[in-house]
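Lab notebook, bench 4. The sequencing result for the construct came back, and we need a structural model before the next group meeting so we can plan mutations. Quick request posted to the team channel:

Model the 3D structure of this chain.
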Amino acid sequence: MTRETTSGKIRADHMRRLAVVYIRQSSAHQIRSNRESGQRQYALTERARSLGWPGRSVKTIDEDQGRSGTSSTHRQGFKKLLAEIGAGQVGIVLALEASRLARSSADWHRLVEICVVTQTLLADESAVYDPRDPNDRLLLGVKGTISEAELFTLRCRLQEGRWNKARRGELVRSLPAGYIRTETGEAVKHPDRQVQGRLNYIFRLFRQHKVARQVLVQLVGEKLKIPAKIWGGPRHGEIRWKEPDFSDLIRVLHNPTYAGAYVYGQAAYDTFDRSPTTGKARVHPRAVEDWSVCLRDAYPAYIGWDEFVENQRLLRSNWYRNGSRGAPRKGAALLQGIVFCGHCGARMSVLHYSTKEKRSPGYGCFQAYHRKGGATCQCMSAAGVDEAVTHLFLRAVTPARIEIALQAMEELQANRQETRRQWEFQLQQADYEIGLARRRYEAVDPSNRLVAAELEALWETALAERERLQQEQKVWEQRQDQPLSAQDRRLVQELSGDLERVWRAETTSMEERKTLLRFLVKRVHLDGVGESGRIRIDVEWHTGAHTSTTIDRPLVGVWAPRTPDAAVDRVHELLAELDYAAIAERLNEDGFRTAKGLAYNQQVVGYIVRSRGWTRSNGKPEAARRSKS
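Done. Here's the predicted structure in C-alpha cell form:
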C-alpha cells in the first residue's frame, strides 16, 4: 500500500503527533467468535505505518473491548481518546468504520467537532478524512448517521423476531436444574430421581414453613444438598450437588418453569437507566400478571400454577418493607408487621425491638412525624395489647384444637419419612460414584502406575465420602425422636385441649407464636387516642370477620399498679424449695396475676426476688417486704 501524503491531507504537523488506532467490539461473544473483525482492527497499526507514522508514534486503545457503542458514558477508552485529541496530541485516528467509534450521533459529532478544532484527521481502511473539508465533513456526517440507523434497524429486526418466536413458545431458553432437553428439543424432567425428589422436597418445605429462610435452616440442619446446573465448560448442563444457599432457594421459588410455564418478558429494561460500568440497561422485575408471554403447561410441572402464584405473594409479603408485613421474627412484639394505626391507618413500628431485653416492646405510629413533619400519632406498650390479642386468638381456635394436634402429628411423621428418603437418595448416589470409580480403576493397565495411582485415589475418595454420609445419617437418626406411640398421641391430644398452656410454654418461641397467629389474623388496628385511658383493638381475621375489644392503658410512675402483697408473700414462701420457673408455674396455678394482669414467668419472679434482695438462704422480715412492695 502506498503512502497517501500526496493527497495533501496529511501534513508535517500531523506526523509530529500520534496516530491512534481505536479498537472496539460490542460484546464478549463477538470478541470470542468474530476474530476476523478483531484482526482487521489491530491491522490498522500497519495502515498507520503505511501512511508515514513511525512505529513508536502509533498507539492502540482497546480498553473498550466488550462495550456497547450506544453511549460513551461507560467507555473509558473513548473518553481517553477524546482527552488526547483535545490536548492536541493526536494527528490521526484510525478505526475500522464509524460504528467502531460510536453508534450515537451525539458522540460521533462531538468527536468530529473536537477533531475540527485540533486539526485531527480520521481514517479507515480505504480513505483519510479531514473534518475541516466540507466534502469530508458531509461524508463523515452521513457515515455517523448510517451507523446509528444501522444499529436501530438491526435491533428492531432482532427484537421482533425474538418476540414472535417467544409468543409461540419456540424461543429456546435455558432450563433450570430438574429439566433436560431430549434429542427432539422437548423439555422433560431430569431422569435422576434424586434431583426430582430434592426439588419436590424444597417446595414441600416452603409449603409448610412459608418462609424461604426456614427452608434453608432445615436443609442445613438435615445436611441435605441441592442440585445446580453447571454453566459453561466441558461439563455444561450437568448437575452438581452443592451446599444449600439462600440465593439458590430464592431462584428456585421464583422460577415459573417449575410450575410448567413458559415465560418471556418477566422484567422491563430501562434504557435511560444504565450501569455506569457496563452500559447495560437496569432490570426492573414485573408482576406475574404483567408478564408479556406466559404459556402454561409448556413443561412438566413440579408444582401447580396456583401454588406458584401464592408462593410469589408469600415471598413478597415476607419482605420487611413498607406495604408488606414481613416474615415472623424472634423479637418480643407479637404483632410485629401486622399492627396498624386505628387513627390514621399507617403501619405501626415496633419500639425498643430487640435492643434492650429488660424493656418491654411497644407500638408507635410515626407516619405523620416522618412524612409530613407533624406530631407522633400514638404510642403504647405492647404487653397488654399482645395479651388481649392472644386471648382472642386462643378463643377462636378452641373448636379446632384436636384436629390441629392430629394434623401436626401427621405432618411430623411425614417430614421425617421424606427426610429419610432424601438421605437414601444421597447414599445411592454415593454408591454409584464408588462403582464408577472402581470400574475406571479396573479398566486401566495396572502397569501404568501414574494413571492407576490417580484413579485409585479417586476410588478411595469416593469410599471416604460414602462413609462420611453414612456417619452423618446415623447422627441425624440419633437426633430424631422415636415415633409417637399411642400413649404419646393421647398426651398430645390432652395438650391440644389446653392450647393456652402450650402457647405460654417456655419452649415455644416468639417466632412460632407469630407464625401460628398469622394463620388466622390478617391485621390488628389499634386506637389509643379515641378514648382517654383506653386502647381499642380491632382484629381483622383472614376470613374477613372483625373482632373488637377495649383494654385499659397501663398506668406508669406513682400511679402504676404494684405486685399484690399475697403474691410477694407466696414467692417468699416458695423461694427456699423451688426455682424461679417452678415458682411462676405455682403462682399461675394458684390464680395469681402480675400487677399488669399477666401470667407469671421466670423473669418476673426473678425481678421480684432481686428487687427485694432475697436469696434462697436469706429472707427479709415481713415489714421490710411489705414496705418494698
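The two ends are 107 Å apart (CA to CA).
Will bring this to the meeting.
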